[in-house]
Amino acid sequence: MTRLPLARRLSTAFALAIAMCIAAPAHARDRVTLQLKHTHQFQFAGYYAALEKGFYRDAGLDVHIAEGTDGNEPERNVSAGKAEFGVGSSSLLLARLAGKPLVVLGVVFQHSPYVLLVRKSEERPDIRSLKGKRVMIGSLTDELTQADELIAYLNKEGVPPKSLVRVEHSFNPDDLVKGKVDAYSAYITNEPDYLDRLGFAYDVHSPREAGIDFYGDNLFTSERQIAAHPERVRAFRAASMKGWAYAMANQGEIADLILSKYTRRHDRQHLLFEARQMEPLVQPVLVEIGYMNPDRWRHIADIYADLGMLPRNASFDGFMYSTDPAASYLTWLYRSLLAAGLLLVGGAAVHVSLLARERRRAQESIRQGELRFRTMFEEAPMGIALIDSASGQFKDINPRFAQISGRSPEELKRGRCDDITHPDDVASEAARMAQLGAGGITGFKSARRLLRPDGSVVWVDMSIAAIDAPADAAHHLCMIEDVTEKKTSEALIWQQANFDPLTQLPNRRMFHDRLEHDILRCRRDGTRVAILFIDLDQFKEVNDTLGHQQGDVLLVDAARRISACVRESDTVARLGGDEFTVILPQLAETGSVGAIAQKILDVLQAPFALGQEQAYISASVGITVYPDDARDIDDLLKHADQAMYAAKDAGRNRFSYFTPALQVAAINRMRMTNDLRSALKGGQFRVYFQPIVHLRSGKIHKAEALIRWEHPQRGLVSPLEFIPLAESSGLILDIGEWVFKESARWASLWRREHHPEFQVSVNQSPLEFQREGKGYEGWLAHLRELGLSGQAVVVEITEGLLLDASSGVTDKLLQLRDAGIQVALDDFGTGYSSLSYLKKFDIDYLKIDRSFTRNLAPESSDMALSEAIIVMAHKLGLRVIAEGVETDRQRELLLAAGCDYGQGYLFARPVPAEEFNAMLVAQSRALAAAAAQSS
């Protein structure tokens, strides 16, 4: 056998060693596990793409992707050897410096997705407002999840964790929606989609606002894996990053892949939302996926040091995986040279061969890099164009740029960038483009409109950046993102936030903004501003009788009529319900204000056509003037409101100017309302009783309970004064309960001592009767405690309640009937009742209003109406009580007409319960004496 020269044999062995080192395995693929930190979602799209597109298979790997149950599971499993690779957050740095030999292979999210979501308020967002509030930030038992960077952010903003009420994280955004917590740590790629679909308004606070910029998801492994399987680690990293590049360029395809093979926990819309939100975090066009910067890791370590979680200037050597092939090659080369010894000739030959090979490899790397970046350019989800700075001509355009602009690349290259810009936006950008061309700035961002050939407008967010080049070949890079849908949504949200959706008039918010602006201008010009508060009279009756849909038609027409009465520069707003306001700015004198108010009153009196019906309303207008009546906006509006109520109290269909006397009256009402709040507890109320007399026998069969207020300073206050205040303040509910219990107590006594069928009538305010979810269960229970039947009480209601056809009113009337409590319709003949209402509802008594009784005379119209009411009531099986009986003549006429009962000063005024009891005792004695005399 011929022996080869030693140098040749060494060279052959050397080449064989190289081949063995670089040869890919041809046998079965290595099985490895990638541990995710959460359940399957687009957050891990690159790994799914690498597996399903065969990138792992081509690298000789059989990869199993395991879902996670908590954020620290990848760190635990990789450290324990249960998984070879994992996906972790920046808290990996803490684990490394705690002694765990973990190594980050590459960064996927250049910016962390963690944010703090806070319920939106009318005030300007301020993270410091969270002090003392309930928040969910990470786990209370394991801080190395979402808590680290957010707690660093809160500390930096002056909100230490001890100032918060920490709540264990449920990872259920419903807790924020339902108000269980005031703030909620979340992924900007995930929870906002859920909240947006619910229409829940929220503010986003990101640690980046305070300069705390952590990496997001990181691919990592252990030092043990790198030492034992360096080629496998390198191959896994390269295939993973290739998968991420593919996933970010083919988002729709990967979303479908996730739905078909991994999870249907989220719908396609959510997965694409997640993908869009990931683009500015991953930055696939601007940064090579996997790239990481030691300075960024040092920044993160400094933040941890500020939190007391790491020592200052801690070393994390070996934490970042080195992807430089030259470093590996040199290490291998030095070891090979040592093995080769002093074989200079052979070593030199090998060295030259390797240099040539490295040259070829570098050229191939450059070519592959150009191909990769060209692919990224072509497949980028945002539009990218290279533009000649001098001429404005397009030099290179990716497909997305052409798609957004609505033109082909060839069309774009034949024109200039100004050709596709909306004409109204060209001038605004000219100055900054000139600065860019002169080198004054290196780039800028703006929102701009593009005009498509079909005339449609596209809103884009545009980024312009200069490219280093000789002055005669200056170019700039233009990147655009279609935000038309976002702009449309913002415009819609702004419209909804500032304008009434029914009338399209400014709402309360916009009204305040315009009033503030007009007052500032008024101060500058020395003019005046008038404010008109307009309340539609009788609108509720229209709404109740014809329905809310026709009521809306009336409001729209009323808004149109009011707007036609003022100038275009004036503001007409709808504050809500049937309340409108008008701002009349820049008035040199106020003499015309009254004429405008009267014009509004006149146009509103004209009939409103509502389907087949016509409706008639009027209005009450309050007027206040700045600066004559007040210099503060709140005072101005308060005074206008007071003037409007003065017009309403004066008879409606009129306007009233604010006067100091109105303010005095308002203050008196406020003080009386305050006194009213303590009157019930202070025992200042009394129940008076007025007898209801059976006209034929002259006996007292019933009594009406009437409340009186014995004010400690004012004396006896009329119910006409305090009942409206009690209704407007809601105190009428508690007062009504007290009156009922007092009435039931006396009814029990009088049924026991005077007559077993004696009845007491109790008045019910509409507010008491109509309140939601509150029936008469409490009343019935109280009657049972007293041993009284329901027939001991009569409930008096007004006609207007019968107009409310809601099931609540019907249910309450049925509840009264079932309990044996009778119902009286008070002031009958003055409202809007009809025979159909009397037939539909269970009514026992009609009370003829005193306005009919007062002028009773034979052959009079009041007599005819009273007789008609009595006959009608009897035909329907109802009994009649006439109010306001003051003379014997009135009693005789009513008796002759068949009226059942009478009530009025002829029989007795309302008296305290003790006096009424004495009256009954006297009646009993008189009846007993008469019976004895007759016998």
Spatial gap, N to C terminus: 164 Å
Corresponding CATH superfamily of the largest domain:
EAL domain
Poorly predicted regions are 1-26, 325-343
Q: Please tell me the overall pLDDT.
A: 84
The helix count comes to 35
- Number of beta strands: 32
Specify the oligomeric state.
single chain
Q: Remind me, CATH topology of the largest domain?
A: TIM Barrel
Structural class: alpha/beta
Tell me what portion of residues adopts beta-strand conformation: 15-25%
Domain PAC: 444-495
Organism: Massilia atriviolacea
Protein name: EAL domain-containing protein
Keywords: Signal
List the helices and strands and how they pair.
Layout: H1 6-22, E1 30-35, H2 45-52, H3 55-58, E2 61-66, H4 73-80, E3 85-88, H5 92-97, E4 102-107, E5 114-119, E6 134-136, H6 147-156, E7 165-166, H7 174-177, E8 183-187, H8 191-198, E9 202-205, E10 218-222, H9 223-228, H10 230-249, H11 251-261, H12 268-282, H13 294-306, H14 325-340, H15 344-379, E11 383-388, E12 394-397, H16 399-405, H17 409-413, H18 423-438, E13 443-451, E14 457-467, E15 475-482, H19 484-498, H20 508-525, E16 528-537, H21 539-546, H22 548-564, E17 571-576, E18 579-587, H23 591-605, E19 608-610, E20 613-615, E21 618-626, H24 633-649, E22 654-657, H25 660-679, E23 685-694, E24 700-711, E25 715-717, H26 719-729, H27 732-753, E26 759-763, H28 766-770, H29 777-786, E27 793-798, H30 807-818, E28 822-828, H31 835-840, E29 845-848, H32 850-853, H33 861-875, E30 879-883, H34 888-896, E31 901-903, E32 911-912, H35 913-934
Helix pairs in contact: 1-15, 2-10, 11-12, 21-22, 25-26, 27-29
Domain GGDEF: 527-660
Domain PAC: 444-495
Domain PAS: 369-425
